[in-house]
Design a protein that fits this description.
Oligomer: single chain
Number of strands: 5
Strand content: 5-15%
Radius of gyration: 22 Å
Order of helices and strands: HHEEEEEHHH
Largest sheet: 3 strands, antiparallel
Length: 159
């Protein structure tokens, strides 16, 4: 598979370079990367709506109870289960590597199967979005405005 690249065109770059030195440009870029990474994280945190697969049925049924784990009902009507949830919504992290890269990830052991590159069909069919799709949407929708705001902020600090 070919690697994917995000191409960003910065209009007015010559004027910007006249006003800011390399270290200030790196500061601007790092703030842009940081803001976008935090937006990606914020979009990734909410769970999709629950469905019947998250609620008990009758005897013999199985379901997944959020914030707990798998559950099942035996013939007598008693409910059993295993507390295996790592609560993904609380496990997101952002690490801004440098002025051009940030790591956005989740430390729940199963997160790659829910929202990552190994996403299962079950999770896709039940509203879970892949992190890379969320990232693409956030960057496409916000890059220009966030970059412009940070550039204007830095130029304002110079003037």
């Amino acid at each position: 598979m070919e690697s994917e690249h995000l191409v960003v065109k910065v209009e007015g770059l010559e004027e910007l370079l006249k006003r800011l030195d390399k270290s200030r440009l790196e500061t601007v870029a790092k703030r842009v990367v940081s803001r976008l990474a935090e937006r990606i994280k914020a979009e990734a945190i909410p769970y999709p709506p629950e469905g019947p697969w998250n609620r008990p049925g009758g005897p013999g049924s199985r379901w997944y109870q959020r914030h707990f784990g798998p559950r099942w009902m035996v013939k007598s009507g008693a409910i059993h289960g295993r507390d295996t949830s790592e609560q993904m919504q609380k496990r997101w992290l952002v690490n801004v590597k440098d002025s051009w890269r940030a790591y956005i990830g989740n430390t729940a052991k199963y997160s790659d199967y829910v929202m990552g590159t190994q996403q299962t069909a079950f999770h896709a069919q039940h509203g879970w979005r892949k992190l890379e799709d969320i990232a693409r949407q956030v960057v496409d929708a916000n890059m220009r405005n966030v970059a412009r705001e940070e550039i204007d902020r830095e130029i304002g600090a110079v003037e």
